[in-house]
UniProtKB/TrEMBL annotation:
Domain of life: Bacteria
Name of the protein: DUF2236 domain-containing protein
UniProt GO MF annotations: oxidoreductase activity
Residue intervals of the ER-bound oxygenase mpaB/mpaB'/Rubber oxygenase catalytic domain: 136-366
Pfam families attached to this UniProt entry: MPAB_Lcp_cat (PF09995)
InterPro entries listed in its UniProt record: Lcp-like, MPAB/Lcp_cat_dom
């Protein structure tokens, strides 16, 4: 094995991998038909209660039915260490910050995720971000919202566990297709290097299958280290972003937020030992994994293309030309110089735009510092990032012409959150009114008069 391949990159997810291996190897109609059957069945997993008692419908090929039922029986249980109080606190925090979290998702979590060359390479192969940036973001939201909505992980009526178990199987399918077999078989032959196939690519499955992969050089795709790193971008990077904006939480709240996401990580198949319990541990783990990942020799380097697609998606929603560079500038501020270089976000920005951004950040922090002497919860920064997050949420997540593929109950929760976005419980009433006016929010309609998005 290459000296750059860490042991964590050679471990994947035996439960999900064996499930997909059984499905694809045991179905007489071939692996593409088997994947299509599984996708149709996954659509039935609408809530935690459903996955806890799910049985394959009549007519399902027996090998697929047995594999999926066994997978759910083993994978749908929360870990023994799950703390219901911490999860509930994290849900409350997410509800308070849901609009702000969208800003940090775009300008911190996703950019840091794309810094890892191997992860960026898999996304590039799948063609999900450059060609379909909004699809990728919406798919991410389709997991985040169900997990963090109230009851997402702990209530039978929630759907967090159901959504995570779907994503876990998607990861296993990606691994199986890229490696053209079970990852455990690839690891047993440490020198395996699959050459690209010169074959038609009719869909994303063909593309993944034909791509080729070098386990000795890059470890397994979607391996334990990459899964743990991705989890860090959702909880640690979010919390770090709050700190950098002057909106940091208490240590107790930060650890509750980490805990809830770690519970989600367990359901996703991440090994418990790879998930940090504190911000200090998270920072150390993030730095170590990212430094090791930057030594990867994976080619082609897809990170600049992914970064450009993400920035463009945000810029397209900003009407004023002078403000269009703000997503790039905010991402640089939140992620730092190394990520800026990795993602190719070092392009020149007009002096006026940079001056407005720097002046805006400095002025905002100064006003917040003074304002909190009188009003402890006063924050212009929080208001502005919530406005940006609201615009992103409406444009990307709540578009009536392309609704999120979520259970109706969850969509109603998301819709309710968006409608209540202006009622920031930490802000004075006048700031809520100003926030609503600046974002052009429509007057709230009665819940019974609204249709779920």
């Amino acid at each position: 094995m290459s000296a750059l391949v860490h042991a964590d990159t050679l471990r994947a997810d035996p439960l999900a991998d064996d499930t997909i291996a059984a499905v694809l190897a045991g179905h007489e109609g071939g692996q593409w038909e088997a994947i299509a059957i599984v996708n149709r069945l996954l659509a039935q997993w609408q809530s935690n209660a459903i996955v806890a008692a799910w049985r394959a419908p009549e007519g399902t090929p027996q090998v697929i039915a047995d594999a999926l039922e066994s997978y759910l029986a083993q994978g749908s249980r929360l870990p023994a260490w799950a703390d219901a109080e911490k999860i509930a606190r994290a849900e409350d925090l997410f509800f308070d910050m849901s609009m702000l979290s969208c800003s940090l998702l775009f300008c911190a979590s996703l950019p840091e995720c794309y810094v890892v060359p191997n992860l960026a390479g898999v996304l590039h192969v799948a063609g999900q971000l450059e060609a379909h940036c909004d699809y990728r973001v919406r798919s991410t939201a389709a997991m985040i919202f169900p997990v963090m909505m109230r009851g997402g992980l702990g209530s039978p009526d929630g759907s967090g566990i159901a959504q995570v178990l779907k994503v876990r199987l998607i990861h296993a399918t990606i691994r199986h297709l890229i490696l053209r077999g079970n990852p455990s078989d690839a690891v047993s032959d440490g020198s395996i290097a699959l050459a690209p196939l010169d074959a038609p690519c009719r869909n994303v499955y063909d593309t993944l299958y034909n791509n080729g992969w070098n386990v000795a050089a890059h470890g397994l795709p979607c391996n334990q280290e990459e899964l743990a790193y991705t989890l860090l971008t959702f909880h640690f990077i979010f919390l770090r972003g709050l700190r950098r904006l002057g909106l940091g939480l208490s240590q107790k709240d930060e650890e509750a937020y980490l805990h809830a996401w770690n519970v989600m990580g367990h359901v996703l198949g991440i090994e418990d030992g790879l998930m940090p319990q504190t911000m200090v541990q998270a920072e150390a783990s993030f730095g170590t994994i990212q430094a090791r990942a930057r030594m990867s020799t994976y080619q082609p380097d897809s990170r600049p293309a992914l970064g450009a697609a993400l920035m463009k998606a945000m810029q397209d929603e900003i009407p004023l030309r002078v403000l269009k560079p703000f997503p790039v500038l905010l991402t640089r501020y939140l992620c730092g110089d190394a990520a800026r270089i990795d993602l190719g976000l070092d392009q020149r920005v007009s002096l006026l735009s940079r001056a407005l951004f720097v002046a805006g950040m400095a002025t905002t922090r100064a006003i917040d510092t003074v304002g909190r002497l009188v009003l402890p919860n006063f924050s212009i920064c929080r208001m502005l990032t919530r406005i940006f997050g609201y615009q992103i949420t409406v444009k990307f997540l709540m578009d009536q012409t392309r609704p999120l593929k979520l259970p109706p109950a969850v969509l109603n929760q998301v819709d309710h959150t968006v409608r209540r976005w202006g009622n920031d419980p930490k802000a004075p009433r006048w700031m809520n009114a100003l926030e609503a006016r600046l974002a052009g929010r429509r007057a709230e309609q009665p819940a019974e008069g609204r249709q779920p998005c």
